[in-house]
Amino acid sequence: MMTNFCTRGLENQAALRILVVVGLVALLSPSPAAQQQAKPPVFRANLSIVSVDVIVRDRDGRAVRGLTAADFELIEDGRAQDVRTFAFEEIKDAPSAVVSVDLLAGVAEKALAATASGARPVASVAEVTPAAGPMRSEDLAGRRMVILLFDTSSMQPEDVQRSVDSARKYVAEQMSTSDLVAVATVGSILTVLTDFTADRDKVSAALNQLSYSDGTETPPPTAATAATDEAAAAATEETAADAEAAELEMFNNDLRLRALRTLAESLTLIEQKKAIVYFSAGMQRSGQDNQVELRSAINAAVRANVSIYPIDTRGLQAVVPGGDARQASGRGQAMFSGRGMSRQFSQLAASQDTLVSLAADTGGRAFTDTNNFGDAFARVQRDMSAYYLLGYSSSNKNQDGRFRRIQVRLKKNDAGYRVESRAGYYADRDFANTSKTDREALLEEQLFAAVSVTDLPVIASAMYFRLAADKYYVPVAVSVPGSAVPVTEGLKEITLDVLGQVMDERGMPVGRLRQTMKLPAGTEKTLAGKQILYQSGMTLPPGRFSIKAVVRENATGLMGTFEAAINVPELARQPMKVSSVVLSTQVQASTVKSDNPLIRDGVQMIPNLTHVVSRDQKMFFYYEVYEPGLTAAKLPDLRTTIAFYRGQVKVLETPVVARATVDAANRQATLFQFEVPASSFEPGLYTCQVNIIDEVAGRFAFPRVVFYVR
Q1: CA triple 706-459-188, angle to 5 deg
Q2: Do residues 264 and 304 lie in contact, with contact meaning Cβ atoms separated by under 8 Å?
């Protein structure tokens, strides 16, 4: 059994784990007759050992050897701890005794099992090297375990080729006999090309599967391939749980982070340090991304003693004024005022920020703005060559789930040695023995936790509609896939607690969500394939906000968290004032009186949070235009249409709708609603562009929404 951990912000530090050792002592009976009269007693001992990996360096950065347990001082939350276990791990090149080790073969099975319980599928194994024999701890002792992970969804063909070439060079020139290397890719799924092996030929063969032919251009998909894509999508059969799981990760980066988390968790039981070399062309995060997933991936890596070394495969980049050949030239005054260049620098930094966080918080190092990827492999070998492993039994036996800070020091440090270790770990928490008061406190703690749980998949969304010049109504929706809710026999009802908070840029709360959702008995039979949705709303001024929502299933205590940014624009400064574009696939009767614009004439529009629709559904698009230009007769002249694109090809466009009325006079808003059957589209990814023209004011806007038809 492993205890959860969390640490943040310390570079080049070793990991820590909790190991539970169970001993069985059986007293043997002297005769068969005596065995039948009484069962032999069994004594069980449960001892939790916190293992802390420590690197000691001298002033020149070299590893210090020859220290003993008596030289170290361990402190947890201000209390001294006794060092119970001590070892020094050093990796030296030696003749290879193990050719292959079968460790990642269970990744696909683990992902499929998670899918059955409602978690999102992330992994499949395309090819796994069979194990040479049963895995033994002595086989892995003195080995560097490195995973080469290629993020093919973010990289261009030239980026993939550059990263593959650097990996080939590492295998040919730097890979030692002590290195066990695995190769994996993450695109729409996590694929293991080869398991851990010391065979250079096997690693090279896996890398060759990613390599592009020299001089062969790999163009992006064109409209000519659309029919093939649609046929493949139509031929794919998904269960309700699979479809639900895929919806939650269709338009964000959470899949990549979940792939890192899955790889780390698969290596949890291996004691020594491991490393993931993550090749990526940056990870630009948006408001649809769950910020909790980043911290969850980092926490899983910390628990598994895995350090992540991201490499920005774009290499050394120059920000070209007005944009380079990969993007359209800038327009307007931004090119001449400096705002355009500033925006380009900000976008570049934002795409590298997540990579830096992954490295810093797991003890690795990010390699950005460099064309020499070989330094990353050298750093991995250096960091995993020599370290101390200290173990202690914590004097704090409370399973409160709180963060416990660890300090490792040398009792005598006259030579000025530098001690590198992680900051601490999170203790276990037992939900079944938690009182009602404590359960409410657990929700509150998760709301403010630095690292939140993601055992229950959650997605949240927020929109904006103007009520006045400085006041907006922000509908908030929180959703959980029904297939993720565990069903416990004998329960009269299923209950889920929802707690959320909206904060401004200063971190001050400006809105709060709290609800206990009760699903009657028998609902569990129809949950698969459905979404459990909670809706609320609040009034906010223009500005930048953030929302964090926590959902807990109250039978098992599974919790999930979603955190994202909310941007409420100041429409008064924009020439064309348009609200959020809402995509819905369901409407229902409602008698609730509210400022919510999604409730009109006794009908409520339910937002589709995942933007994934089935062909048998109808799609409803709703948006509002504020303060349109008025003719001499005090009437607007607005014209709008919706165009649907598959890649670069327009596949459908609605007829032009002209409006010459102001529907909501108190808000100076003209309302638009379209109904489009999803059966008009073949399966695939589409971009919906809303074209709005104000004929009187001579203004226009083109907001866009992406959705997927399955």
Answers
A1: 55
A2: yes
Using CB atoms within 10 A of its CB, is residue 635 exposed (0-12), middle (13-18) or buried (19+)?
middle
Q: What is the number of alpha carbons within 13 Å of residue 703 lying toward its C-beta?
A: 16
**Is 84 within 8 Å of 49 (Cβ atoms)?**
yes
Q: What would the DSSP string read from start to end of 4-22?
A: -----S-SS---EEEEEEE
Query: How many CA atoms does the CB half-sphere of 7 hold within 13 Å?
Result: 31
Q: Who's near 93: CB < 8 A, 6+ residues apart?
A: 176, 177, 178
User: What are the helix (H) ranges across 193-239?
Assistant: 200-208, 226-235
Number of domains making up the chain:
4
What secondary structure letter does DSSP report for 171? I
Q: What share of the chain is helix, strand, coil (3-state, %, to 5)?
A: 25, 35, 40
φ, ψ dihedrals at 633, nearest 5°: -90, 10
Which H or E run contains 392?
Answer: strand 386-392
Which residues are CB-contacts of 507 (< 8 A; sequence separation ≥ 6)? none
d(CA 401, CA 404): 9
The vertex-441 CA angle with 439 and 444, nearest 5°, equals 120
- How far the first Cα of the chain sits from its last, in Å, is 40
Whether residue 282 sits in one domain with residue 166: yes
Same domain assignment for residues 438 and 509: yes
For residues 4 and 296, give the distance between their C-alpha atoms in angstroms, rounded to a whole number.
11
Q: Write b or e for each residue in 655-694: b if 16 or more Cβ atoms lie within 10 A of its Cβ, otherwise e.
A: eeeebeebebeebbbbbbebebebeebbbbbbebbbbbbb
Q: What does the alpha-carbon distance between residue 354 and residue 286 come to, in Å, rounded to a whole number?
A: 12
Q: Assess whether 248 and 344 both reside in one domain.
A: yes
* pTM value > 0.70: no
| C-alpha span between 377 and 400 (Å, rounded) | 40
- State how far the Cα of 65 lies from the Cα of 55, in Å rounded to an integer: 10
Question: CA dihedral defined by 391, 396, 400, 402, rounded to 10 degrees?
Answer: -60
Instruction: Please list, in sequence order, all residues whose beta carbon lies within 8 angstroms of the beta carbon of residue 323, skipping any fewer than 6 positions away.
Output: 329, 330, 344
Q: Which 3 state secondary structure label does DSSP give 446? A: helix
Q: Which domain holds residue 661?
A: 574-710
Q: Where are the beta strands (DSSP E) in 411-508?
A: 418-420, 424-426, 459-462, 465-468, 471-481, 493-503
In this predicted structure, what is the pLDDT of residue 539? 92
CB-CB contact of 453 with 559 (8 Å): yes
Q: Where are the beta strands (DSSP E) in 504-617?
A: 509-520, 531-540, 543-553, 559-568, 577-578, 582-589, 599-600, 603-607, 612-613
State which residues of the chain have pLDDT below 50: 1-36, 108-109, 111-136, 213-238
Q: Residue 400 carries which DSSP code?
A: B
pLDDT at residue 485, as a whole number: 83
Has residue 232 been placed in a domain?
no
**Among the three residues 534, 549, 570, which one is the final residue of a domain in this structure?**
570
Cβ distance 155 to 121 under 8 Å?
Answer: no
Identify the three-state secondary structure at position 533: strand
Backbone phi, then psi, for 304, in 5-degree steps? Answer: -90, 5
